[in-house]
Amino acid sequence: MGLRKKWLEQRVDLLLNVLLPGRNRIGIAVLDLDSGQLLYGKNADLQINIASNVKLFTTAAALTLLGPEYRYKTVLYGDRDKTDKPGEWKNLYLRGYGDPWLSTEDLWKLTNELTVRGVKRVKGDIVIDDTFFDEQRVGPAFEQKNQDSAYRAPQGAVSLNNNAITVRVLPALVEGQPARVIVDPGSAYIALTNEARTVGNGRTSLIVEASEEKDAVPGRERTMVRVRGTIRTSESSGIDFHKRVAHPDLYAGATLIDLLSKRGIQVVGKVSRGTAPPTAQLLDTHHSQPLGVLVRDINKRSNNFTAEQVLKTLGADSSGKPGSWQKGIQAVSRYLETLGILPGRYQMVNGSGLFDSNRFSATQVVTLLRAAYRDFRIAADFVASLAVAGADGTIAHRLGGTPADRYVRAKTGTLNGISCLSGYAGTPLSSQQPIRPPLAFSILVNDVDEAGGTGTAKRLQDAIVETLVAFHGTPMTPAK
């Protein structure tokens, strides 16, 4: 191992000097999973912003504390008065437990039970019960940017479609006419202003903005969508824009009313916020995919919304409802302490790694990776959640056609001036060679200069990872 370790050190040092010799802040650690030996370290204990690599800590803690088999539920209740006519109900209640994947289709399936029961009319309200989480909608550090992009969607125990909408803009059949705009899902919660027009020549130039309605009556707020610009007649398939909504509970409730209407069920009242009473009758329950599947959305696609939902769920599960970021981070902290990653030695303020907020070291990342790999209860689900080099996720277009193609599973992390890559690098071995576990690695680069951009850091990471893939398979000849 000593000879290979020396070979690795020389190779990585050379790559650093050639590819990224600037003033970047770099932390690198490579760990042998069997022995726990640090095979290579460069500023390995430097605390720096690891961007979306924070999701590794969120998912490992969640799989350990909740279990890969954990499923979210969303429950539909109803109540009736003794004097109600057949097919008539007083109120319906939608209670959520933080499901990050609840979709319009899932809501549609929940309403099917109402049709089976012969429900024709709801004389009261659609009450949204999202008391499983606290009322803080936007995660810590998210205030650093005020954008309407879907990646910055708010959180809620009742959350629909990642608390985002799709705005599709299509050209009219004749130039000069207003563009066609379709909002999915459509409901009274969305107030649309369409100022876009269709052009035969020129270029497509569209601006779609989503904002919270100002000075609205509490409980009656809407998200205002404004579409401006031009779209060419040749854009026949249309262009999609994904935007956050401001009020997850009202958005889900208004969508539910729209779906009930499509089933022929009249709702006399409005969407309101509240708690389902103990006497309410259980009508139907939707269960999510297991957590072992959901974490792939977090690590392969780097879904920020799902990561924050899972973190707040950890808080509710470990310390009781309502789930909060503080409770969730405390749960992760207790888990990390069992791995020897002690409080005060790192900084974690949210579950997704967004913005200038979190600080970890490369050593702490590979320590986590080793612990997750060696824990049989979660190892298969955790490793499977990572993107595969050259194949899928955020590294689908990296390392393809190289010796590292499909031999690396990793998590990316990218912010302005920041590029991180951490995961596992395996080695193609012949049948005569002993089976060896992959190497755990973390390559963290901060303060990337604007001239080279993060592309230079990614080239360095890819080159180092190719070296790690060759680590066990390269013949070593002792120096004479």
Based on CA atoms alone, the radius of gyration comes out at 26 Å
Helix content: 25-40%
Counting structural domains, the number is 3
CATH superfamily caption of the largest domain: DD-peptidase/beta-lactamase superfamily
Task: Please give the number of β-strands.
Answer: 21
Residue runs with pLDDT of under 50 for 5 or more positions: none
Helix vs. strand class: alpha/beta
Mean of all residue-level pLDDT scores: 93
CATH class of the largest domain: Alpha Beta
* Count of DSSP H/I helices: 10
How far apart are the first and last residues' alpha carbons, in Å?
Answer: 17 Å
Proper CATH architecture of the largest domain: 3-Layer(aba) Sandwich
Descriptive overview:
- With 480 residues, this protein is an alpha/beta fold.
- Helices cover 28% and strands 24% of the residues.
- It contains ten helices and 21 strands.
- Helix 1 (2-19) runs antiparallel to helix 10 (453-469) and helix 5 (291-299) packs across helix 6 (304-319).
- The chain starts with a helix and ends in an 11-residue tail after the last helix.
Summarize the structure.
By secondary structure, the protein is of the alpha/beta class. The protein is built from ten helices and 21 strands.
